[in-house]
Design brief:
Layout lengths: L8 H8 L1 H34 L3 H17 L1 H12 L4 H8 L13 H25 L3 H9 L4 H12 L1 H16 L3 H7 L6 H10 L4 H33 L1
Helix pairs in contact: 1-12, 2-3, 2-6, 2-9, 3-6, 4-10, 6-9, 6-10, 7-8, 9-12, 11-12
């Protein structure tokens, strides 16, 4: 109910109800999962784009990353519904190969939502990493090879530390996108998977409790700002260590 008197009643309601804390925790936890998975996939992809000597390969990989950005979130969400359905391409292929007997339940749970969100975040993460990787001179890696270092050693001792600042920046961007996710949990989750943005939508549209919806949005915004500030501080600290 809207009141003209300013109060902290809605904040008291939020902090006294464990259900909303549960939704906030799920949102933060799943956002971390999505960010880590995106980084694990995007870093090798960005490294190949930054170091590949084949222009054709670079163009193909870049095109494959940009097309999802142009298709829009709604198209991607419904495409994943088709792919991940019980008779979709993924389950049909796995059954044809004899890997599974019964369809894997991808839809209306966190599994399908995370797959779709990682796919959605991947281009942003990879494109953020290409620049920092290119800024690492190839001569550093060649020097490591000449000194007898193995490829894993060169990567973990030279490339990874020098791109740490870029990794933090990509992490901050990906986490912010995942934290504010609304469409994919709604479509692929079918109402069973909810993040804070979905709760804000329900409180606004279904319950018509605009003040409390504003409170939830403020809490989510505050958490996002804290994350960005923490990442910015960490990025500056890493940069100072390499100066």
């Amino acid at each position: 109910m809207v009141s003209e008197v300013w109060s902290l009643e809605n904040y008291r309601k939020f902090f006294s109800d464990s259900m909303y804390f549960s939704f906030l925790f799920d949102t933060l936890y799943r956002s971390v999962q999505i960010t880590l998975l995106s980084l694990l996939i995007a870093y090798p992809l960005a490294y190949c784009l930054a170091r590949s000597s084949s222009k054709i390969l670079r163009h193909i990989m870049m095109l494959a990353m940009i097309i999802p950005l142009l298709s829009g979130g709604i198209t991607m969400a419904y495409s994943w519904m088709v792919l991940l359905g019980n008779v979709g391409l993924v389950n049909s292929s796995l059954r044809a190969l004899g890997i599974i007997e019964k369809p894997i339940r991808f839809l209306y749970n966190w599994l399908g939502v995370i797959i779709a969100l990682v796919h959605y975040c991947l281009p942003y993460t990879a494109l953020s990493l290409i620049g920092p990787i290119r800024n690492v001179p190839r001569t550093f890696e060649e020097a490591g090879v000449n000194l007898g270092a193995s490829k894993p050693t060169i990567f973990f001792r030279i490339v990874l530390p020098l791109t740490a600042s870029g990794i933090i920046e990509a992490t901050s961007l990906t986490y912010s996108i995942a934290l504010s996710s609304f469409l994919f949990p709604m479509v692929l989750g079918g109402g069973r998977v909810k993040m804070m943005a979905n709760i804000i939508y329900e409180v606004t549209i279904i319950a018509s409790d605009f003040p409390f919806a504003g409170t939830l949005a403020t809490v989510l915004l505050f958490v996002s700002i804290l994350t960005v500030l923490a990442m910015t501080f960490l990025q500056r600290t890493v940069r100072r260590t390499h100066e």
